[in-house]
Amino acid sequence: MRHIPNILSSFRILLIPFFVALALRGHMFLAGILLIISGVTDLLDGFLARRFNWVSGLGKVLDPLADKLTQITVCVLFALILGGWFRLFFVFLIFKELVMLALGFYLVRKDVKIQGARLLGKVTTGLFYLSMVLIALFPALPFVAKCALLLSTCIFAFITGLRYIPEYKAYRRQTELI
Description:
The chain is mainly α. It is 84% helix and 0% strand.
């Protein structure tokens, strides 16, 4: 039973190619449904890991990896599909995710014990999923509504990224002591 969170994180990674195939074929409603499933399994794996103390070293790597891979994939596809000015939002989100992924990888390689995501990070991830699901399920959303969703997601992502800088510095100091 204690492996269920890792199975759910792995499942999220396995959903990515199906999401890509559906989105590229123009089946955005079905792609949106897969995003909902991915988001729900993300919530469920985190809840189960914390609730039943099923936290593992693998899970601490697998869960954020599934998050980053999903978010980067969604951003790349939506940048291609929506095009125009929307690309700027997605480029920003991709950059932020790549920086977070690189910093996390660096800390894992240095064998630093990383704490789980903070509340603001979880809210940002939830807002990301909500925005992307709404854009996928309702492609006829007005330009202004899409911009508002993407702008709010980018603002939260930016604030979250800034909030992690002091933690990263503390972790980095910890690696220098090792």
